[in-house]
């Protein structure tokens, strides 16, 4: 049995109608799944956004707390540095100046003493030579 073009067109038309009827529920199901997934995705986006905002707020609060703590510590350090500077100016520097003046005056005295000591040593050497010469002369006379 040979099918004519009209028969083939009729069969094709019947298959199109039947497939269309069976495909339509699948399309409808896909559309409803798409809408459901879009809703879930939107809900997840909102949830993530809320969580991100909460984390941002928490981090901001922690940063502000650390900032305030550091500010307090900086003020304490500044006060301590000020005290150190005052101590240095009022105690250490006058003592250093006293030490320096004592050292300088002692140095000058020793410098003068050394010059006198060197002169005494030269005189002593000269006296030794003269005494030795006189001793020799006295021994020759005796």
Output the keywords.
single chain, 142 residues, mainly alpha
Question: Can you walk through the features of this model?
Answer:
The chain is mainly alpha-helical. It is rod-shaped and about 180 Å long. Helices cover 96% and strands 0% of the residues. The mean pLDDT is 91. The protein has one helix at 5-141. It has one helix and no strands.
Query: Radius of gyration in whole Å, from Cα?
Result: 57 Å
Classify the helix fraction into a percent range: over 70%
How far do the termini sit from each other? Answer: 181 Å
Q: Which structural class best describes the helix and strand composition? A: mainly alpha
Indicate the proportion of strand residues.
under 5%
Compact summary:
The protein is an all-alpha fold and 142 residues long. It is 96% helix and 0% strand.
Q: What is the topological layout?
A:
Layout: H1 5-141
């Amino acid at each position: 049995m040979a099918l004519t073009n009209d028969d083939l067109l009729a069969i094709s038309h019947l298959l199109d109608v039947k497939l269309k009827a069976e495909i339509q529920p699948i399309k409808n199901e896909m559309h409803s799944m798409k809408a459901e997934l879009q809703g879930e995705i939107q809900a997840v986006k909102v949830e993530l956004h809320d969580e991100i905002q909460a984390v941002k707020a928490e981090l901001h609060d922690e940063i502000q707390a650390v900032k305030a703590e550091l500010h307090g510590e900086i003020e304490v350090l500044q006060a301590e540095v000020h005290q150190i500077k005052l101590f240095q100016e009022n105690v250490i520097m006058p003592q250093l100046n006293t030490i320096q003046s004592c050292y300088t005056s002692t140095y000058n005295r020793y410098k003068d003493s050394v010059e006198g000591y060197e002169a005494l040593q030269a005189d002593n050497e000269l006296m030794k030579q003269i005494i030795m010469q006189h001793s020799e002369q006295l021994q020759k006379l005796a």
